[in-house]
Hints:
CATH architecture: Beta Barrel
CATH superfamily: Nucleic acid-binding proteins
Number of domains: 1
Low-confidence stretches: 213-219
Structural class: mainly beta
Mean pLDDT: 85
Amino acid sequence: MTDDKFDFINEVVERGTIVAKRETDNYTLLTVASDLSPVYTGGERVWKRNYPHIFFNGEAKEKCRDYKVRDVVTVRGYAQTRRGKIGDREAYLLGISGVDIEEAPRIFIDGNVASSGKIYEPEINEVRIAGRVGECRILNDHLISVRVICKYNGSKQRTIEALYRTKVADFISEILPNDYVYVIGFIQTREPDPDKSRRTEWISAREIIKASERSGSNVEEN
C-alpha cells in the first residue's frame, strides 16, 4: 500500500462545557471540560477530567462568536503538531484546530426535552487517526510513543504523536515503521507544568490497529 491509495483520517470530536474563552484578532481559544480518563500515579489509577484547548482560526473563528462560557457544545476539528521539547526530550507538541461548533444535543424523553432542556447527551472525547507509522519510541515496558504521519483534508503531511499503554514487546512485534494504522484515542490533559518538563496535552490511544502488512523496521528505545 502507498500513501496515494490510503485514506488518511484526522478527526477530533469534543463535547462538553466551555470553561474558558479567549478571543484575539487572529483566533478564538476555547477550553472545554470533557470526559474523565484514568491517570496512573505511583501505580495507582485515579480518574480526572480533561480540559482540551481548541483553536479556531480564519472562517472557523466566526462560528464561536455566539458561544460563551458555560455553554455545552460539540466541537469538531483535527490534530496538528509542532516540534518542541519536553524537558530534554524531543517531542511533537499537540494542538487542536477547530472546524465546526454547535450546541450539544439535548436528551429527549417521549418527545419532550428532559429537565427543562438542561440535560445534554453525554460528554465525548474522541480522536481518530489513520496514517503511516513514522517511528515508535519505547518509554517503558508498558508505554510506547507512536508517531503517525497523516493528512487533514488533503493538506501537507503532519506527524501526530500518540502515547499507547500496552504490552510493548507484543506491540513492536506486530507494528513497525511504514505500517498503515488506525489510532482510536482521546485527548488527555494535566495542569500546566511551570518548568515545562511534562506534557500538558496529548493523545492517549485506546487502540492501535494495523491496516496493512508491515514494510519496515527500526524501533528506537529511550
